[in-house]
Amino acid sequence: MKNVITKGLVMAHAIENINGKDCMFYVGETPWHGLGQKLNDAPTIGEAIDAAGLDWEVGLKDLQTVDGVPVSHRATYRKTDGNILGVVGPRYTPLQNRDAFDWFQPFLDAGECNLHTAGSLHSGQKVWVLAKLNRDNSEIVKGDETAKFILLSNSHDGTTAIRVGYSFIRVVCANTLAAAHSKTSGNKLIRIRHTRSSKTNLENIRDIMDNINSEFEATAEQYRFLASKNFNQVDVRRYVKTVLGIEKVNDNDIKTRTRNIMDEILTLIDGPKQSAVGVRGTYWAAWMGYNEYLNYRKGRTADNRLDSLWFGQSANDDMYAFNKAME
Asked: Residue 176: which of 302, 21, 312 has the closest Cα?
């Protein structure tokens, strides 16, 4: 991928941009989407917050009808500029950006991980922090490894819960953000509602996550199972038709646009990223080829694809494709 950092996004894009600066950072190699501020070394929490443009807090405003009658719901807003983020219920308590980052501090102090990327979507409505664990990668087949990450995502608009957990990300693909939030079995995410106790509940999760190696290995075994499961051309066409929801449609009746998408996915399944010995011709390649389509091809812009993979329909599609590959 060309090593480009994208600047000056227009408002139609999902990654927030303030004064020509993408509100996101990443460490090391430029990710697949090419967005954000590049950092050569792992940052401190303070440096990460600054690089990601997340040095702001969320407040709550009471709401009323046009006739001045108070209502139970409230609006969340960004205190630095008054930007309205969403409308939430009466029990909603924001998890501030600083608190989200501070959750990682014990892991950082123990040398267990380094902050890898963070940022915001849709003018601050959604925020994420991703840290890479300092642990050995898991090998699925020879030359095809998955790295281990901790992910925390949060919405300030009330549309999703706080989500935190461990995630596998395939090393051969620089699709860190998208893969991290996929809802497949490989990504164990715990959901916490935005209440007064959410910060305490979040802190308690650390104890659950201390002994996660067994879950990592169990997930790696699922991936190895996919790599041991071969397909023929009839099988893979049936698989792609199934994940596209056209398994009962006769080939001659498939619409042109859908046929083009199907052909594109089949090309990716047989493409260079799935060409390694032990990968090509397996359901690991089939699922990864479809995942590559969601990451790189579906949608009009890189950050809108990211948003859909994290919070929208593509996340559900990826989970469905994984489950079908496992059958």
From this structure: 302
